[in-house]
Write a structure and sequence with these properties.
heterodimer; A: mainly beta; four-stranded antiparallel beta sheet; 0% helix; B: 110 residues; 11 strands; globular
């Protein structure tokens, strides 16, 4: 089965702790994306990566960091500098960044910071 | 700037048609899309329309594009309870980036 997996589905952390969200795809896609979803605000792009070892900031990158050491994996770290980290985080991938509309989404991780 | 607007809620009766509306600001958009999100899940691409088209039909789904008014709509015929979800309108800018609307929560009552 090809697809995108995100783990865990629910994550709880104490304020001030860094936390890393996992995103893995076996679709052989070059491009990967991280979005944040808040109620009534749609999706906002945090970071994206067009190819291994390369990534760019999206619209709301402050307080987040990413890495792209392998094609299949694009983990997102929510740092203690992120002022309001509680949200639903979605990872997506596309064949390449030129076809970003054909984005396949993972099931999401709901992060709650206590 | 780039902005996509949708109304937040829509409620219909089972069997009726649903029409979800969206407006966008970027006239250089190449594609416009509709995504569906079921509760607690990721987004699923439902359909998309190229900016030089006026209409696209796919089974129960009809997409209408009024490029002059920058207005996009999604009509779902014979709406079923399984269609209850959040529907996102999105546009792609010339750099290939997707801009999403806030999402319209469709509630289908039996």
């Amino acid at each position: 089965d090809g697809g995108i997996t995100q783990s865990p589905k629910y994550l709880f952390r104490k304020e001030g702790q860094n936390v890393t969200l996992s995103c893995e795809q076996n679709l052989n896609h070059d491009a990967m994306y991280w979005y944040r979803q808040d109620p009534g605000q749609g999706l906002r792009l945090i970071y994206y990566s067009q190819i291994v070892n390369d990534f760019q900031k999206g619209d709301i990158a402050e307080g987040y960091s990413v890495s792209r050491e392998k094609k299949e994996s694009f983990p997102l770290t929510v740092t203690s500098a992120q002022k309001n980290p509680t949200a639903f985080y979605l990872c997506a991938s596309s064949i390449d960044s030129g076809r970003s509309y054909e984005q396949f989404f993972g099931p999401g991780t709901r992060l709650t910071v206590l | 700037g780039e902005d996509v607007e949708q109304s937040l809620f829509l409620s219909v009766r089972e069997g009726d048609s649903s029409v979800i509306n969206c407006t966008y600001t970027d006239s250089s958009s190449t594609y416009l899309y509709w995504y569906k999100q079921e509760p607690g899940a990721g987004l699923q691409l439902l359909t998309y329309i190229f900016s030089n088209m006026d209409m696209k039909q796919d089974q129960r789904l009809t997409v209408l594009l009024n490029k002059k008014d920058k207005h996009l709509s999604l009509r779902i015929a014979d709406t079923q309870t399984g269609d209850s979800a959040i529907y996102f309108c999105a546009e792609s800018n010339p750099r290939g980036k997707l801009i999403f609307g806030q999402g319209t929560e469709l509630s289908v009552k039996p």
